From TrEMBL:
<keyword id="KW-1133">Transmembrane helix</keyword>
<feature type="transmembrane region" description="Helical">
    <location>
        <begin position="172"/>
        <end position="192"/>
    </location>
</feature>
<feature type="transmembrane region" description="Helical">
    <location>
        <begin position="97"/>
        <end position="119"/>
    </location>
</feature>
<feature type="transmembrane region" description="Helical">
    <location>
        <begin position="391"/>
        <end position="413"/>
    </location>
</feature>
<feature type="transmembrane region" description="Helical">
    <location>
        <begin position="198"/>
        <end position="217"/>
    </location>
</feature>
<dbReference type="GO" id="GO:0005886">
    <property type="term" value="C:plasma membrane"/>
</dbReference>
<comment type="similarity">
    <text>Belongs to the multi antimicrobial extrusion (MATE) (TC 2.A.66.1) family. MepA subfamily.</text>
</comment>
<keyword id="KW-1003">Cell membrane</keyword>
<dbReference type="GO" id="GO:0042910">
    <property type="term" value="F:xenobiotic transmembrane transporter activity"/>
</dbReference>
<dbReference type="InterPro" id="IPR045070">
    <property type="entry name" value="MATE_MepA-like"/>
</dbReference>
<keyword id="KW-0813">Transport</keyword>
<dbReference type="InterPro" id="IPR048279">
    <property type="entry name" value="MdtK-like"/>
</dbReference>
<keyword id="KW-0472">Membrane</keyword>
<feature type="transmembrane region" description="Helical">
    <location>
        <begin position="19"/>
        <end position="36"/>
    </location>
</feature>
<dbReference type="Pfam" id="PF01554">
    <property type="entry name" value="MatE"/>
</dbReference>
<dbReference type="InterPro" id="IPR051327">
    <property type="entry name" value="MATE_MepA_subfamily"/>
</dbReference>
<protein>
    <recommendedName>
        <fullName>Multidrug export protein MepA</fullName>
    </recommendedName>
</protein>
Length: 453
């Protein structure tokens, strides 16, 4: 099949088949990505100690901030590529690829310089103490030095998926995961490098996968490939990429703010070990969130293409199927967290007090988890069809409008419990907002479909 044929199948193949074809590779890739983050934590927890897990948890806000800038380019560009391919505008899609390379290079370098210059004050602000700062610093210095590689790898992988190669995008992620898992024990235990060794393993794995992605895009037989004249930034394209990417950008920035509030609150009310408990809970919950994100990535090119082609009935269909699948995933996470929390958290540490705190936190966090899949899919759905403002509203409703006020107010009455209970409360309220907005959008689609027919 030609590359154009691979793209245009999004408009005529059965939706269920397409979602399976695109989502399964993305799910495998995202699950693998989550697993190697978990493996990092497991190796650090058992090989370095409980305080090292707390130190690693201190870095989460900065990691989220780096991811925010990565998603600003990667997610925005991949969505725009899908829409342009649906419109048969292959020349513009090619220009988007070049702009992704240039934007990631510029943003990655600037982010590294600024954060390294103020790293210790940043980490203290994020909740580090004299005990946890050395672990957090050792990890983040290495990660930041490889930040350009990380941005470029994630950006090109997103474009590759939207260009009709979900299997290759999946293979790149799995390659990264496998290499990282193999290198972790070598650098942590073999070379005795501790938490810094985990960071080195992560960056080396991404470098190897990035080289493979570059090789794919150097192939002139690909519909989208590297060539002269596509790297100069174009104002309209940059504006559109950033405009669409603002939703995940703000979501990641909000996540950064939220983790800061959680870390500082837990440190105030419950000490450094409680930060480590949140770090473990976050890794477990993130596994199920990443599976839903994989479903979203599978939905994104299908919804974007068919929205560009004005086939609204297909847009509706892929959305509904994705919601059903996401709900199954998050319900599974709910069952794990409520029925076997001690077993889940004990994989990360043998410290009995840390296990006890983590298990209790996990039970509370997943209290309303079955409905969060619907909220995540709805937010990504609006982003996938280029409705950036609605996607931003949904992204911010849970993170900023609900969760942050809860994190500021509830601990005043309930202490550390107020921090843990803030998360399920925000889940249920944000899902109600998402349901209202999606209902109104489906009504509009029905009206447009009737006008076309």
């Amino acid at each position: 099949m030609t590359q154009k044929g691979t793209a245009t199948e999004l408009g005529n193949q059965p939706i269920g088949k397409l979602l399976t074809q695109y989502a399964i590779p993305a799910i495998i890739a995202m699950t693998a990505s989550s697993l190697y983050n978990m493996v990092d934590s497991i190796f650090i927890g058992h090989g370095v100690g409980a305080m090292a897990i707390s130190g690693l948890a201190i870095t989460f806000p900065l990691m989220n901030l780096a991811a925010a800038f990565g998603s600003l380019v990667g997610v925005g560009a991949s969505t725009l590529v899908s829409v342009k391919l649906g419109q048969k505008d292959y020349s513009t899609a090619q220009q988007i690829l070049g702009n992704v390379v240039s934007l990631n290079l510029i943003i990655g370098i600037l982010f590294t310089i600024l954060t390294l210059a103020f790293l210790d004050p940043i980490l203290y602000f994020f909740g580090a103490s004299e005990v946890t700062l050395p672990y957090a610093r050792d990890y983040m210095v290495t990660i930041l030095l490889g930040n350009v590689v990380t941005h470029m790898y994630l950006g090109l992988n997103s474009v590759l998926r939207s260009a009709g190669h979900p299997q290759k995008a999946m293979a790149a992620t799995i390659l990264t995961v496998v290499i990282n898992i193999l290198l972790d024990p070598l650098f942590i235990y073999g070379f005795g490098m501790g938490i810094r060794g985990a960071a080195i393993a992560t960056i080396l794995a991404q470098i190897i996968s990035l080289c493979w992605l570059i090789k794919i895009f150097c192939n002139k037989n690909e519909l989208l490939h590297f060539r002269r004249g596509i790297y100069r930034l174009k104002g309209v394209l940059v504006e559109n990429i950033i405009g669409i990417g603002l939703a995940p950008f703000f979501m990641n920035v909000a996540s950064c703010m939220i983790v800061i509030l959680i870390n500082k609150g837990l440190k105030l009310y419950d000490g450094d070990l409680a930060i480590g408990a949140f770090g473990i809970v976050n890794r477990i919950v993130f596994l199920f969130v990443m599976i839903v994100m994989g479903l979203n990535q599978g939905m994104q090119p299908i919804a974007g293409y068919n929205f560009g082609a004005r086939q609204f009935h297909r847009v509706n269909h892929v959305m509904k199927l994705t919601v059903i699948a996401a709900t199954i995933v998050t319900t599974s996470g709910f069952l794990v967290g409520e029925l076997m929390p001690e077993l889940a958290v004990s994989a990360f540490t043998t410290d009995s007090k840390l296990i006890e705190q983590s298990a209790r936190g996990l039970r509370i966090t997943v209290m309303f988890f079955p409905i969060i899949g619907f909220q995540m899919v709805t937010s990504n759905f609006f982003q996938s069809i280029g409705m950036a403002k609605k996607a931003i509203i949904l992204s911010l409703s849970r993170q900023v409008l609900i969760l942050i006020p809860c994190l500021l107010i509830l601990p005043l009455f309930w202490g550390a419990d107020g921090i843990w209970f803030s998360m399920p409360i925000s889940d249920i309220l944000a899902s109600l907002i998402a349901g209202f907005m999606l209902y109104n959008q489906f009504k509009q689609f029905k009206q447009k479909a009737a006008e076309i027919n």
